[in-house]
Design a protein that fits this description.
single chain, mainly alpha, 2 domains
């Protein structure tokens, strides 16, 4: 029994050591994968199971196969976004790819507005002026501080500085500025607070 216990301890030690050696490498590999996926244009992508307006063109058989193969819960598939997840897994057969594609496809004008501290109609006016018809196309321009939206970025920078007084905002890159704006948006903070209270109540 004593020798068995010792073998078990040695096995755990080996596992821990192995995990320490491989974990950073695995994390780096995953990070590289995610960075690569983020660069893919999932809005203009030529899908097998989606048309140009992101409407489904998948057979019922293939759809049901994706549900079964990827272990989706049928009772939880109630909205377009839920079904889109099923279709994208049939398309890519990879959770990370499907997740990032879904995020971009279902991006909303409201979400862009949370980053810019503007309401939905104000954001849509900007998009219309730039002849943009999908929310993530506008978000892409904002993230890279495209000259077409540089005034919007600088207006946001000024607004956030006057609100918080943080000097680092003056030189912050556009992507980090948008993240800061989103995280500190009063509407977003209120939504998170309500979601937390609801989750706490349900528990």
């Amino acid at each position: 029994m004593k020798s068995l216990k010792m073998l078990f301890i040695l096995f755990l030690t080996y596992c821990a050591t192995f995990a320490q050696k491989t974990s950073p490498e695995m994390l780096q590999k995953q990070d590289r994968k995610i960075d690569s996926l983020r660069k893919i244009d999932f809005i203009g992508y030529k899908y097998k199971y989606l048309d140009k307006d992101f409407k489904f063109k998948i057979s019922e058989k293939e759809y049901q196969q994706s549900i079964k193969k990827n272990k989706f819960y049928p009772e939880k598939i109630v909205q377009y976004r839920d079904s889109l997840g099923v279709v994208l897994m049939a398309e890519f057969k990879d959770w990370d790819t499907a997740r990032i594609a879904e995020l971009k496809i279902t991006y909303t004008w409201e979400r862009v507005g949370y980053h810019l501290w503007k309401n939905k109609e104000e954001v849509k006016e900007i998009a219309q002026r730039l002849n943009i018809n999908h929310p993530y196309r506008l978000q892409e321009l904002l993230l890279r501080n495209d000259p077409k939206v540089s005034d919007e970025i600088e207006n946001l920078r000024t607004k956030l500085f006057l609100k918080s007084g943080k000097e680092e905002l003056k030189t912050m890159s556009s992507d980090k500025l948008l993240l800061f704006a989103f995280s500190n948006n009063p509407e977003v903070m209120e939504l998170r607070k309500n979601a937390h209270l609801k989750a706490k109540k349900n528990n």
